[in-house]
Write a structure and sequence with these properties.
The protein is mostly beta strands. The chain is 9% helix and 45% strand.
């Protein structure tokens, strides 16, 4: 590698690659266009994107919904305030998600362990441990010269507290520690590469009510609120994937044995939208974009924003205006059928706009609950030509109900 920027681009996921200096924004079309006049993606990117990977097979089978589904240990990822409504005293879950198996990789995976303990009828606490292994990697420069070997890995440790504020409404707060070790120990041009560390918090709320014999749950969460991170002593620091989500689940109790629920989640990253360096002028030619670097210090202004300025501004900073802001919302839809609270069949769909990543896929799965043990399986089917790390991959989650194991006395 010739310099630190090149190393970070290749090894640390090309943060803000979409804000390429050659990209040209067309005000009339409201998007960045290529040389053929076609709109091209302007994807929002952040550091440590593994924090936004859905960790469990149940939600993975329902189009990645989870903000308002019935509470389980994996609520920590979506909406910790749901834990205030748990019915069991103690529960744990463990999930294993193979990653990039379509490419023949066997040492890249996401592991997730989560659990909760009910304190009383009003309160509950929870914990989560997420580990993302990127396997063994041999680092080289552009000429193929070896730079050393490494085992990139990322870690999140989280703790949550949830409390009912009324019989129908709860709130939750989650604190987490984040470690991202992608190329620690390498030195490029005399610059040392370090692990990125940060602390962050989630704030969440849940409303649970009844409509006749059926249930309506509404959940919302603001997650990954924390300081920007860096992998070196560089002045460039990157945003955590802060996210605002709101979701609803309508559950129908069909009879004594059968139930059916429909869930919808909307999510938007609270990260500044990349601004291209060039903009098309009135004659159709590229010109310097006045919104790219107003202070003329050589650094894109959207990268210099502070944490909370970036979060608050993310609702209206897209150069394409309100229509582009709407494109930054991702949609998840899921269906879950239960028979006798023991066997479940699930399906879902996930949609992301073409200009913001273009992830579109169907999901299916099943669940089995028996006494102290539960098993959930999910499978992802892509619906476009965009490759997904989970293409045609089976993931699974094990649930353990220690209260049932000990006869209800923990």
């Amino acid at each position: 590698m010739k310099n630190l920027k090149t190393l970070l681009t290749l090894v640390i996921a090309a943060i803000y690659l979409s804000a390429d200096a050659q990209a040209v924004f067309n005000p009339e079309a409201g998007c960045i266009q290529d040389s053929n006049g076609q709109c091209v993606p302007n994807t929002i990117l952040s550091a440590v994107p593994f924090l936004r990977i859905i960790p469990d097979a149940r939600s993975g089978a329902m189009g990645d919904v989870g903000l308002a589904t019935s509470p389980d240990p994996n609520a920590l990822h979506f909406n910790a305030s749901k834990l205030a409504f748990v019915e069991k005293d103690v529960s744990f879950s463990a999930t294993y998600t193979p990653w990039l198996r379509e490419l023949g990789l066997t040492d890249v995976y996401l592991a997730y362990l989560a659990g909760y303990k009910q304190i009383d009828d009003l309160q509950a606490i929870g914990f989560g441990l997420r580990y993302f292994s990127l396997g063994d990697i041999s680092f080289t420069d552009f000429n193929g010269n070896p730079l050393g070997n490494g085992r990139p890995r990322e870690l999140e440790v989280s703790f949550a507290y949830a409390r009912k504020l009324s019989s129908n409404f709860s709130t939750g707060i989650t604190g987490k520690y984040i470690l991202s070790n992608l190329a620690s120990g390498l030195s490029v041009g005399g610059t040392e590469i370090y692990s990125a560390n940060s602390v962050a918090a989630d704030i969440s709320f849940t409303y649970k009510g009844e409509i006749g014999n059926n249930d309506l749950t509404i959940g919302t969460a603001i997650s990954n609120l924390g300081n920007k991170v860096s992998y070196s002593n560089s002045v460039f620091r990157d945003f955590l994937p802060a996210n605002f989500g709101i979701g609803a689940t309508y559950s129908m109790n069909l009879d004594e044995y059968n139930s059916l629920s429909f869930s919808l989640d909307l999510n938007k990253l609270l990260v500044p939208t990349p601004v291209p360096a060039k903009i098309e002028d009135g004659t159709g030619n590229p010109a310097d974009n006045p919104n790219y670097d107003k202070d003329q210090n050589g650094i894109a202004d959207f990268r210099e924003k502070g944490t909370f300025a970036g979060i608050l501004g993310s609702f209206g900073d897209a150069q394409g205006g309100f229509s582009e802001e709407l494109k930054e919302i991702n949609y998840s839809f899921g269906i879950e059928y239960w028979y006798d609270k023991q066997f479940a069949v699930r399906a879902g769909y996930y949609y992301e706009n073409f200009l913001k990543g273009d992830r579109k896929f169907l999901t299916v799965g099943v669940g089995l609950e028996y006494n102290v043990f539960g098993l959930n399986l999910s499978y992802l089917v892509p619906t476009n030509n965009r490759r997904n790390p989970l293409d045609n991959t089976l993931r699974f989650t094990f649930n353990f109900d220690f209260e049932a194991f000990q006869g209800g006395d923990f």
